From TrEMBL:
Entry's Gene Ontology BP terms: nucleotide metabolic process
Protein name per UniProt: Nucleoside triphosphate pyrophosphatase
Role noted for this protein: Nucleoside triphosphate pyrophosphatase. May have a dual role in cell division arrest and in preventing the incorporation of modified nucleotides into cellular nucleic acids.
An MF annotation (GO) of this entry: nucleoside triphosphate diphosphatase activity
Enzyme Commission number, as recorded: 3.6.1.9
Reactions listed under catalytic activity: a 2'-deoxyribonucleoside 5'-triphosphate + H2O = a 2'-deoxyribonucleoside 5'-phosphate + diphosphate + H(+); a ribonucleoside 5'-triphosphate + H2O = a ribonucleoside 5'-phosphate + diphosphate + H(+)
Family the entry assigns: Belongs to the Maf family.
Entry cofactors: a divalent metal cation
Localization of this protein: Cytoplasm
Pfam families: Maf (PF02545)
Keywords per UniProt: Cytoplasm, Hydrolase, Nucleotide metabolism
Enzyme class: hydrolase
Major location (coarse): cytoplasm
């Protein structure tokens, strides 16, 4: 990625309020526009490829409309150690959140989070993939019910809000950037922003 005298405005291509909150932590001005894309996986597509493809596609959708802007797209794909081709999406309902967490209980779960930045005017298109592992502790039915009622993680992949009470569901975590688990890897994104002229911090 190259730097230039022109410092592009930032657009976050996302529908996620959590990603919006995360990006706000970097103290840079940005707008948010929701991309409209089909997030269905291709046949035999693995989690890493899917996450990177969707992050790039989200950014590309908005970059085509605003070629002067630096557009940030991000996507997260979740899978269980023993089932690499079974992706765990957003539950949308309390019943499905309960079933997801019951299935994740006691398991090692992979979170593949990709971030893509694009600026057509600067000829920038870069994707980075950050991996994070979570070992869920053995959860009782009552614990799962209490958690779902409290956090209502209906729009979080894997039915957890790690930034909230979801942290209590874990036995251990393994990874370089906790914000990747939350949906937007800020360490890598900060580096990307610095490379195009933004001061972070």
């Amino acid at each position: 990625m190259r730097s230039d005298q022109f410092r592009p405005p930032i657009i976050l291509a996302s529908t996620s309020s959590i990603r919006r909150q995360l990006l706000s932590r970097l103290n840079v001005p940005f707008d948010v526009i929701s991309p409209e894309i089909d997030e269905s996986p291709f046949e035999r597509e693995n989690a890493q490829t899917l996450s990177c493809r969707l992050a790039e596609q989200k950014a590309a959708t908005i970059s085509a409309q605003f070629p002067h802007a630096l557009v940030i797209g991000s996507d997260q794909v979740v899978w269980i150690e023993s089932e690499p081709h079974v992706f765990i999406g957003k539950p949308l309902t309390a019943a499905r959140a309960y079933e997801q967490l019951r299935n994740l209980s006691g398991k090692l779960v992979h979170f593949e989070t990709a971030v893509n930045v694009q600026c057509q005017q600067l000829n920038i298109n870069r994707t980075e993939l950050i991996r994070f592992l979570v070992h869920f502790r053995n959860l009782s039915a009552v614990e799962i019910q209490r958690y779902v009622a409290f956090d209502q993680p209906f729009y979080s992949a894997g039915s957890i809000k790690a930034e909230s009470l979801g942290i209590s569901l874990f036995e251990a975590m393994h990874g370089e950037d906790f914000t990747a688990l939350m949906g937007l890897p800020l360490i890598k994104l900060s580096q990307m922003l610095r490379e195009v002229g933004w001061q972070v911090p």
